[in-house]
């Protein structure tokens, strides 16, 4: 058993007969009344995100998990297939278990969170950022960097990201996986 002081991003807990992963939290101590923790929880079975408030000191049932490095192999439409980089065993997961499936390209190494009680994979954590090539965007305009204006760009995985106006097709860009936002252009 854990309490609200143990809450952190990525913690898996049992709540309402399901297993949830904490994706966002905020400890709040108002001037009047008791402290509480406001959380966003993502169900590892359905992918549904809910908001919940726990009162300070509330006991929560945490789930013991292990993390393993897996390499993304391919997506067959319904399932995403991964291979353990240590023992080469393969698993397949539904898209709801993934944080940012649109930013994952074949060969990407991710962290898979596995329930240590029944060895069931719970969720997939992407690296903090990925480098992808821009496959389609409107042509860039030289010298147009003074404003924070952006334009949509499609990357090699098919995901769409807003990028600055100077980005062209063929450029490699770093994308922050948590928010799916442009970080920087990669020079080669």
If you had to describe this structure to a student in words, what would you say it looks like?
The chain has 3 domains: 2-62, SH3 type barrels (Roll), CATH 2.30.30; 65-125, OB fold (Dihydrolipoamide Acetyltransferase, E2P) (Beta Barrel); 129-186, Nucleic acid-binding proteins (OB fold (Dihydrolipoamide Acetyltransferase, E2P)), CATH 2.40.50.140. Helix content is 0%, strand content 54%. It contains no helices and 16 strands. The strands form 3 sheets. The protein has a 6-stranded antiparallel beta sheet, with no helix packed on it.
Provide a brief overview of the structure.
Strands 1-6-2-3-4-5 form a six-stranded antiparallel β-sheet, with no helix packed on it. It has a five-stranded antiparallel β-sheet with strand order 9-8-7-10-11, with no helix packed on it.
Low-confidence stretches: none
Number of helices: 0
Stated plainly, the CATH topology of the largest domain is called SH3 type barrels
Which term fits the overall shape? Answer: flat
Order of secondary-structure elements: EEEEEEEEEEEEEEEE
CATH class of the largest domain: Mainly Beta
- Beta-strand percentage range: over 45%
Radius of gyration of CA atoms, rounded to a whole number: 20 Å
The beta-strand count equals 16
Helix- and strand-based class?
mainly beta
Read across the widest sheet, the strand sequence of neighbours is 1-6-2-3-4-5
What is the annotated CATH architecture of the largest domain? Answer: Roll
Give the overall pLDDT as a whole number. 84
Number of domains: 3
C-alpha end-to-end distance: 49 Å
The largest sheet, given as strand count, sense and whether it forms a barrel, is: 6 strands, antiparallel
Helix content, binned percent: under 10%
Pfam families: EFP, EFP_N, Elong-fact-P_C
Main location: cytoplasm
Subcellular location: Cytoplasm
Pathway: Protein biosynthesis; polypeptide chain elongation
